[in-house]
Amino acid sequence: MPEAPTMIAGRYRLGEAIGSGGMGRVWLAHDERLDRDVAIKEIVLPPGSEEDAAVARRRTLREARAAARLNHHGVVGVYDVFEADGKPWIVMEHVPSRSLKEIVQEDGPLDDRQAAVIGLEILEALRAAHKAGVQHRDVKPANVLIADDGRVVLTDFGIATIEGDGLITSSGQQLHASLDYMAPERAQEGEATEAADLWSLGATLYDAVEGRAPFHRASAVGTLTAIAADPPDPMERAGALAPVIDGLLKKNPGERLTSADAGRLLQAAAEGKSKVARATAAPIAPARKDQDPPGGRPGPARPLIIGAAAVAVVLVVTLVAFVLTRPDGTGDTPGDNIAAPGPTASAGTPSAGPSDAPASQAVQPSPVGAPTPSPTGQAAGGGENAGGSGEGSGRPQLPQGWRDYTDPTGFKVYVPNGWTQSQDGTMVYFTGPTGRVLGVDQTNTPKADPVADWSEQRDTRIADGDFPGYSEVKIVAVDYFQKAADWEWTYDSQFGRVHVNNRGVVTSPTQAYGIYWQTPESDWNAANKDLQLIFDSFVPKP
């Protein structure tokens, strides 16, 4: 005769186990009183002292309190917490789902647009948590559930911190999070901040598209050292997500993307609007072999070497604390969710039409045609033969806080220090922390009339609904190199009013560029001097 299902707390009938981890098991159960399915987490108390058991009980209560503070569709709801059979239990909303970790392992990495949609949902859940005074502290692919109905849910607030909560544990207990997704300030100093959650979001998005964690090394100490001192491993599949991942993985929390800026970039990527600044006359082409991969950057910054040795010592001590304070010595290990990376994501094709405009900090993909060049014409500020920076070169002096960027294809332009660089096909773009975007695209097949081309593009894009609240400032020819035209306009993005200027310019019979510039509307006037510096410093390839 089969065994009767186990009844817990007089009302919850346990079914099958649907998950397990270092802290316990999750069961599918039925609430007999309310006649609904629920998920119940059984906390397995660690062997050892009563103090360890007390810590686990406090952790359980903290998880329940943290999640119960939140009433958000992107957070698993908590219904009850109780103790039975000498163990704590948490009753939660049942979400039929797979974790992001399982999806990447079983199905392979996601494309950038899919990952951006998921990232937006995670970000919204984190915003709700932060607004309620809760820092999650363990954002990772295993804690992101993708429901059967498509809902994205953040779960496991077991090591969350709650503003004003007296249940915060010691610094050692703060390190139950997976190392691969832990912000450097948490790894080194145990700091629990909103910015640290955003770092973990960046590492999670990296994993989603690349199939591996961005700083994983063969040993835990190596992983921690990489988090503290190395750039993330080069991205091959990130595409439109490269700017937001790079911005979220800044070592210095003060330089990291804010929630609002990350949201703008994610929205643009999710809507396919991130390929901004398509040159007038620049069809979308496959990425060239001589360019860095999207979001790629040079190897580890060895000015960091002196500090890295000291950091490593700190991290070894931190790692020991991490290992010793895990309640049962089990659970996630660094890199245990790594899947084989997929092939490099392909760029668009020359036949691709213009895509949607950016919601914010992304570059507008407008493969517009540039004019057939006239035999004369000179750049405003920097002439066609301009060379290095400063006096005698035809370019303005390089200001402090800027760098002279030289593209592998040969063009040059001044770019603010610290802006995130990414490559997408023929386009390179740079995103600043305050919503400013610079993008440069190019083509070797200029078109005839830049003004007519921008006008055609405008009509098409407005008809497609790309620019809600579109207000045209101008479409005019400008005196710049051989032929050029500016298309300037404002529109309502999801995150506020933005102001855009896209300049299409022909520099030779076989070369044209698009220089795209975008800022929040409130920042446009203040940013004008920077845009003029960019125009004046631009030098086409020889």
From TrEMBL:
Signal peptide bounds: none
GO molecular function, a single term: transferase activity
Limits of the Protein kinase domain: 12-270
Transmembrane region(s): 304-324
SMART domains from the UniProt entry: S_TKc (SM00220)
Keywords associated with the record: ATP-binding, Kinase, Membrane, Nucleotide-binding, Serine/threonine-protein kinase, Transferase, Transmembrane, Transmembrane helix
Biased composition (Gly residues): 379-393
A Pfam family matched in the record: Pkinase
Gene3D superfamilies: Phosphorylase Kinase, domain 1 (3.30.200.20), Transferase(Phosphotransferase) domain 1 (1.10.510.10)
UniProt EC number: 2.7.11.1
Ranges for region Disordered: 276-301, 327-409
Binding positions (ATP): K41
Biased composition (Low complexity): 277-286, 339-360
InterPro entries named in the record: Kinase-like_dom_sf, Prot_kinase_dom, Protein_kinase_ATP_BS, Ser/Thr_kinase_AS
PANTHER family tied to this protein: MITOGEN-ACTIVATED PROTEIN KINASE KINASE KINASE 20-RELATED (PTHR43289), SERINE_THREONINE-PROTEIN KINASE NEKL-3 (PTHR43289:SF6)
Entry protein name: non-specific serine/threonine protein kinase
Organism: Catenuloplanes nepalensis
